[in-house]
Amino acid sequence: MHSEILQPIVVLVGWTMVMWAYMVATRLPAMKAAGIDLSKVSGSKPGQLDAILPPKAQWPAHNYMHLMEQPTVFYASALVLAVAGVGNGINAWIAWAYVAFRIVHSIVQVTSNKISIRFVLFVLSSLTLIAQVLHAAIAVFH
Q1: 51: left (phi over 0), alpha (psi -120 to 50) or beta
Q2: Domain limits at 29?
Q3: pLDDT tens digits, residue range 13-72?
Q4: Contact assessment for residue 70 and residue 127, using Cβ atoms and an 8 Å cutoff
Q5: How far apart are alpha carbons 90 and 131 in whole angstroms?
Q6: Residue 138: its H or E element
Q7: What pLDDT, on the 0 to 100 scale, is given for residue 1?
Q8: What DSSP assignment string belongs to 1-44?
Q9: Would 43 be classed as within a structural domain?
Q10: Is residue 1 one of the residues assigned to a domain?
Q11: In a domain, 109, yes or no
Q12: InterPro entries of this UniProt entry (predicted)?
């Protein structure tokens, strides 16, 4: 039998790929409209396109970067729980809550990008992640 916590891991990985595809589908047309010829561009600095492209075209890129940051702690702690044999029950539910908050956060960021809503979702996802990390620590240090 596999650990239930592997399911939300796979869902968040899949969601990250959905956001990658959305980022590409949004940014490439915006870059073309801005007159950026990718065959003539070499090197760039993070955030450089923020000054060139419309904000709404950049929001998916910002969200994709966010999905590369804090979720790394989610993946590590979820895998610890799975390997420790305690990735079912409450730990799986905490992981699902984290994934749900991150998906809703993504949707808000790439549509309205309302900071007040994003902040609440970030705090809620962070609290679930803290709970997950604590449970992982208990599992390996108990």
Answers
A1: alpha
A2: 6-38+50-141
A3: 999 999 999 999 999 999 999 999 888 888 878 788 898 999 999 999 999 999 999 999
A4: no
A5: 10
A6: helix 115-141
A7: 65
A8: ---TTHHHHHHHHHHHHHHHHHHHHHHHHHHHHTT--GGG----
A9: no
A10: no
A11: yes
A12: MAPEG-like_dom_sf, Membr-assoc_MAPEG
Residue 5 near residue 82, CB atoms below 8 Å: yes
Domain assignment present for residue 45? The answer is no
Number of domain units in the chain: 1
Give the Cβ contact number of residue 106 at 10 Å: 23
- What pLDDT does 43 receive? 80
- Across the range 83-87, mean pLDDT stands at 97
- Asked whether the beta carbons of 91 and 132 are under 8 A apart, the reply is yes
Q: How far apart are CA 95 and CA 102, in angstroms?
A: 11
Please give the model's pTM, rounded to 2 decimal places.
0.95
| 3: Cβ contacts below 8 Å, ≥ 6 apart | 81, 82, 85, 87, 88, 92
Task: Tell me the average pLDDT across 78-94.
Answer: 98
Give the span between the Cα atoms of 80 and 119, in whole angstroms: 27
Question: In the predicted model, what is the mean pLDDT of the chain?
Answer: 96
What gap in Å lies between CA 117 and CA 121, rounded to an integer? 6
CB-hemisphere CA count at 13 Å for 35?
1
